[in-house]
Amino acid sequence: MSYLIAKPSEYIVITGRGIDDVKLAKKGWVYPLQSSWKFDISPMNYTFDVQAMSIEKLPFTLPAVFTIGPRDDEESLTKYAKLIATHDMSGRHVTELLKGIIEGETRVLAAGMTMEEVFKGAEYFKQEVFDKVQVELDQFGLNIYNANIKQLVDIPGQEYFSYLGQKTQHEAANQAKVDVAEAKYKGDKGAKEREGLTLRNAAKVNAETKIFAKAQSAAARQQEVKVDAETIIFENKRAAEVAEANADLAQRQAEWTKQAKLAQIESEKSSAIRDAEMNMLLEQKKALAETERLRGHDVAKATVHYEVSVQGANAEFYKQQKEADAQLYKRQTQAEGLQKEADAHLYRQNKESDALLYAKQKEAEGLQLMAEAQADYVRTMMAAFNGNRHGFHDYMMVDRKVYQEMGAINADAIKGLRPKVSVWTTGSNGSNVEGSAQPLADIYMMIPPLLDTIREQTDPRPRSRPIPSGVVSSAEVWS
């Protein structure tokens, strides 16, 4: 039996009698029929030259340095303790195990990538190798603390990266020559292209600005409709809360009024009762005094008078008490009626407020649904017209019969009017004059029908002679 103590970076593993699997400890007793050993959890560096091949069957060497050590938790340490039960961490067995896992995962990953992808995506390639190797090391309780993949190296006899560097140098030199030639060419036409580009960009910016302004206007309108609906809902809620507060205040005021009136009635009646009692006591004292005074002279007469007085006082007190009870009952009945009336009024106001709020909510929902349906309809029709707003506008005017209504309105506007139309001709067929006198003849022929037309259409005086039916007036037709 021995007592063992581990160093700060060490753990003690104990197996044997009384232990089902293994026991980890920093210090403890090792009893007979038990065995123990220590292991260090400090990470170690492992250097590998991984041989891999790309998807184009191009081999390359991947120098890598991994810093690997066990995780400091019970489950991982138990797995790690079983791994090195017969080998230490720096032994050949563990090194070969790690090398096999790293080379296997690296080769599988490189076989699915081109050489160009491996070369350009070094960080991605490194992270993928790191993640896939870590998954395999989890089953041994190991963790990769750091992984450093160095520059890819050619395999002897396969100078891919060397040739790639030479290719890059030659391409850079050739590109420099091309750049010089293009710079001269661009210098000649750069000014013209810049002016054209400026005009095109200005037109593009103007178009985008108009589109953005339209979109912002539509969004602002939608937001305004939404805010209006929310404002109406909030106002309805506030009105309902105010109505509820007013009803509660009315109820409390009715209760306070009832209590005040009851207290006043009780006070008045108590005063009346006390007054009656004091009167009765006063009468009794007076009767006693009178009895004592007249005892020797007329005892019987005084006694009768006393009894009569007592009975009268009792009757008066009883009468006043009954009147007070009747008045109290009446006040209580009136207070109960006011309470019930206030409750009914409050209930009615609550129901009216609920109905109004519900109606406003449904109206807001209907407006929102109508706006959404109209927006969907407009978007669908604009898509059907391939964004042609003029075509969509003409379709809407025809579909909603706007043109028909405009025609009907114009027809109704002139309905009942009887315009007078006068037609005459001054052609050559109506005159035998020819040559230079023809214009004068036309003027003289135009004057009579013109005067007749003016008189017919503007003169309010009646005709001197009625025109028989079927006869065409010269003011109407002149030939």
UniProtKB/TrEMBL annotation:
Spans annotated as Disordered: 456-479
UniProt keyword Hydrolase, yes or no: no
Pfam families named in the record: Band_7
Annotated protein name in UniProt: Flotillin-like
Domain Band: 5-183
GO cellular component: caveola; plasma membrane; plasma membrane raft
Membrane topology annotation: Lipid-anchor
Keyword Coiled coil: no
Family: Belongs to the band 7/mec-2 family. Flotillin subfamily.
Signal sequence range: none
